[in-house]
Fold these 3 entries.
Entry 1:
Amino acid sequence: MIEAEGITKRWGGIVALDDVSLHVPEGTIHGLIGADGAGKTTLFDILVTLTHADRGTATVGGYDIRKQWKDVRKTVGYMPAIFSLYGDLSVRENLEFFAHIYRQPVQAVVDLVGDIWAQIEPFSDRPASKLSGGMKQKLALCCAMIHDPQVLMLDEPTTGVDPTSRSEFWAALRGLAGKGKTMLVSTSYMDEAAKCDRITLIHHGTILDELAPGEVGEHYRGTLYEIGAADTALNTRLLHLLREWSLSGGCYSFGDRIHLGMTLPGMRSETVVSYLRGQGVDTSLVSVSAVRPTVEDLFIQLTSGAETEETLQADSR
Amino acid sequence: MEDRNIIVQHLTRRFGDFTAVDDLSFDVGRGEVFGFLGANGAGKTTAIRMLCGLLKPTSGRAEVAGFDVAHKPEQVKRRIGYMSQKFSLYNDLTVGENLQLFGTIYGLKRTELRERMAEMYRKLEMETLKDQLVGGLPPGWKQKIALSAAMLHRPEVLFLDEPTGGVDPLGRRRFWELILDASTEGTTILVTTHYLDEALYCNRTLIMADGEMKALDKPRTLMREYGAKDMDDLFEKLTRR
């Protein structure tokens, strides 16, 4: 339903997107996972025909984004990252306004977005600016759905929204996928990757990886160990010791634990324990166990190599 | 020396007939990292504004860094630092200009400010960045510099309101290491976040819903107590309406 091939875009001297490709089948939710500045919004702007790519081609709903941009716009519902409804209008007035623009009867729209609308209907007389973050986003979703688009492009719809409202919002998206809608959703919350059918990890305009959330373990190189001590001071010491270890393949604090990647073959948790013992640590106070890596661990593994380069780029700017 | 740096007793704030914060009581120890979690509208921001001396409580009281927030707000403000994702730095100023601005606002003397800035550049290895405009820096760097700006005057208590939004995972972990360093040096830290996994960096976590305190303890103790498999699950169990 969304096919992009080799999309490249520069803004002045900065490469916003470098050879980005995407394939999103009908009725699926595809996650675009990356931090601020990764190029997510630029990709959306290109796919919804608001700006042109320098290179590359794409079709949305089978329509070419350059030659058939009018058809693309009819096929797509776009929810931009910045709240774009009218704050002074009430919830109902916003919905009526957008329905009018798209020449749709309001009732048809209400039927279309039924269960999402039901959640905001109790507030229908409230000005949109006075809604909570989660409610605003649900209203914006309703307004993006006005013309019954086949494809929804949602740019960071859950940023700044609290965890409970985030999970309600994702439930609404899953409901729409069940009705055959295709969705491209960007987020900087790595845990939301699990709610997608497939995900693309993007960083500084480049695709790092493309996978199903269940495949994280296979894409992660080596084994991930979680290491923890009850005592904070000991934890800090462990972090420093493990960072200095020549066999360490990346080591970061993760809450009150430490995550250590081991990429060399033949490593076991005993290897870690004996290293720490050799450094004079009382290992009876330390737990070491192999754990399943998360999307975040994978993302860190894929970006930590490029880090020095990033600092250099920042230096030269 | 008092080892509690934040003391909150029956703190309440009403706006008209809406109770934003309802009878909140807790203490935070010196050097503690204290997590403050809750849904949007749970009352976190109202509570923080009271603790920063920006908003008077309707009833109850709070002491921050040894001063009553209602009666000595200016004393409180001089001893705290504040940073949020939404407002942190001026994009049109360079890194150095931003630090100078914040340092001057907090009343640092010129030589003192120069020394602390030099120390900060060394610590963050950003000597080469000081003449760069903040607007062109990656988000992770901005957050680190914003944190530094909030700490230039060596505050006793640091309020961090969703400090890591939009930052990549590696950047977030680096940022937390800076926070933990500050706490090791004795700074008391109160932090809100929407990344629930980050609650595990905190010594203790308070979970709020509808203006009230729902739970307060070590994150892992709370997870055990409520039979939650992770922080998301715990949050869901405690805040479900």
Entry 2:
Amino acid sequence: MKKALTSALVAACATVLAACGSSGSSGSNGLSGGSSASAGGGATVASKLVLGGSPEFKTRTDGVPGLQRVYGVTFGSYKTLDAGGPLTINALKNGQIDAGDIFTTDPSIPANGFVVLQDPKNLYAAQNVLPLINKAKATPGVSSTLNAVSAKLDTNTLAQLDVHVITDKQDPDAVAKGWLASVGLNKTGTAAQGASIKIGSANFQESVLLAEIYAEALRAQGANITTRLNIGSRETYIPGLKDGSIDLIPEYSGVLLQFFDPKATAVSSADVYAALQKAVPAPLTVLDQSSAEDKDAIVVTKTTADKYHLTSIADLAKNG
Amino acid sequence: MTPPGLTAPPVLLHHAPTAGLAVDSSPGGMFSYFSDHRDEVLNWLGYHAWLSAVPVLAGLLIALPLGWLARRYRWTYPPLVTAAGVLYTIPSIALFVAMPELIGTQILDPINVAVALTVYTVALLVRVVADGLAAVPEDVAQAATAMGLTRRQRLLKVELPLAVPVIAAGVRVAVVANVSLVAVAGTIGVPNLGQLFTTGFQLSVGNPYYPPITLGIVLCVLLALVLDLLVVGATRLVTPWRRAVGGS
């Protein structure tokens, strides 16, 4: 797991370097930035910008308070939109916000040329995709089926599947089936024979897709599956899991840990997972995590990044 | 203009754009969207019809005695009608979410929506029933009494039937209002046509994606028309004298 995280970070750094290299042609380098030249009483870059994100991001430990605590970044104002969904993305595109909390696998980031600001101080904890399930339903056969899915799923795969669903408008169920077939997890078996599981999803397309992947993998193993997709946010579906309305939902390790334990400090993938296993309340449990990550990121448009020489969240605290 | 590595997050470096795949994002794409998602959409339509119609029937059954009470004992009219008006101002999403706490159901149970919409229907119909009964001409009521009908007979055989057209007008409003209110419940994961709006909106990243949204609107309108026609038909059935007099 640690290896996956490291390689993701290395890849991320490579992107930054590429960005710096090309913006160098316009006469300035993002890292050494001419922005500090204007230091001496000027306002910070962030104070001139509007941040947009989900309602919970405004108060979440690693949200607006985290930006202030870790980077000393305070935005001029905060617009409450959605969790990296169309509201945030379109607002960023239209210039109604200058920076948005968007998820790293979102296909609209490359599609719109948005710039993901680096997070050198690891404000954002690991966010590995994993199944959150009612313990009573996690029979050995069900667990092994879902663990086999997690073993095959990585960040790159997830991002590509997102493109099929969000950009190409393909049916999430069809995309799920196609991917399972491509990794050999569609072979029928009897591992989950007799299990009856209600699978839910949050109200964004990646969650719907992951729920369909779990559903089709379990169906192939003989489970009786019903789906309840687009349930809404954690505040709705976690109670739904506890009261038995649903039995299983795809989740992300870091935010889930913060949901159950707001004071959690774990950052690395392995630490977050270990802490999460302890923090998940009965009757729920988490199964193996996949290496696929979909992290929060502070994202700006290329124009904004160029104008203020931004490559990292830390750059927002400079005077500009 | 920009090299591919510049804008893509690290994870997407190897991904080739898929512009070759033609996606019909125009409203006309709803037909192919429907054929691609037929089972799912029909399932949502079924839930939507159920969630729109059942609360109206339940609400009517509750509103009839309350409306009668407001008419029979005049002093109860202001508090009953005011309370009903206040109920109607509760935002639907708040009521849907609060329902499990109030009636002890599971949070994702569609019954929450059915009960909440019953509350709205009652709120709409209490006044309508009371006013409908009040609209029965006094001389007709007196004639009924003169013919020897008891209070109960007079209510069931004369006043209530004569109030049907007024009450039915209220029911038509309630049923159509319910069709649109049910869609709100799509945002909290209750299966219904509102899910088409949620899905369409989520897929409208960058460019609007109309097919599911248009399909949802068309099906909601059709459903409202059908339910409205049913109410009109039922009203005609229980008011045969109006057809005889109308002669049309």
Entry 3:
Amino acid sequence: MYSCINHIAIKGISACVPRQIKKTMDYDWITEDERKLFIKSTGVEERRVASLNAITSDYCEKATNHLLSKLNWEKESIDVLIFVSQSMDYYLPATSAILQHKLGFKKEIIAFDINLGCSGYNYGLYVIANLLASGNLKRGILLTGDTSTLSTNYKDKSTYPLFGDAGSATALEFDTDAKPIYFNLFTDGSGYKSIIVEDGGARNQFSEKSFIEHKISEGIERCSKNLVLDGIEVFNFALKEVASSIIQLFNDSKLNINDIDYFVFHQANKLINESVRKKCRIAPEKTPYSIHKFGNTSSASIPLTMIYQLKDQLEKKSLNLLLSGFGVGYSWGNCIIQTNKIVCTDILEIE
Amino acid sequence: MDILEFSAKLESEFEDLEKGSVTPATEFRNLPGWSSMHALIIIAFIDLNFDVILNSTELKEAKTVNDLYYLATKKNV
């Protein structure tokens, strides 16, 4: 699906992570050589891990308050609030409703959740941009992030050392001076089992069996309430679909690779991201990374990488960015967006 | 890329291997330090150099470096 949306501008971004740092070299479930290989292949040297005190919506709440304050936006001016996550506060109600209340936003607001992971930032941007594009609604806040470490098992070397926790807030506004945003978005549910938490939804409700650990293979033990990640299948999906979808967006938008200042990829793992980068013939200096410091932070990884690596430039000049998110679902999508001296907070921390 | 160059390049993808330790007959899962992460490294190597994506079944059935070369090139050596 290709689409071009006019008159929408990103005005600011913010991100918040837990203060607790876990270093890959301290992960004693695997040998020291395996830790080194893991760091070399995935890029993850350390990541932020939630304490018991705070989860995704708390990171997003803090990021939003800080961002609104830096933007000097009145809370009453927010017309749309979207929370994109796969670690909602409760089975129900929607976390966006809880956040509307906690943030002190007005009642005349459209607020809802979107259940997506690694592709979530692009999907969220698309949905909020469409809602604002008519001009009837002026301002929106897009919140993205996950607390993936709550569902990983320490004894699963394929997931535990990879994921970090984070939340982000992006402020968008109807702006007739804004350049068009070009999107393409895709879904292929045939790969739904490749990244999955099997128990805890309506289909497989929690039971005693959900907590029984099984040995899957060497270094991988988990139970059915834990996150499953089939590395080879996910890698194949990314190689098949992501680079070609980026090239397709260039073809559809009549833009080309030289028009882009930076390609901000979802921080899946370094091996995947570097493969996509090389397939698209993108220069390494145009692809910023945050995975070495924060791990794979799901739908927060794109805004987190923007702040971590591009804060100064985002604040001081106009940038053409290609944002690419891909993963669980499978779900993936890209957008080309021009930012123009936006507000960036520092990366905030929470206990 | 012939099979010898393929073997040498694959060898350099693995860390800390003695020069010449990867030959066409090498059973790659028996290489010292083999881990499941190397499967991803092999997929990335073959995709980058041959534009061929190995699926998990193909990879599971492959035993030797020669098998990988065949999957990458569809050439018997």
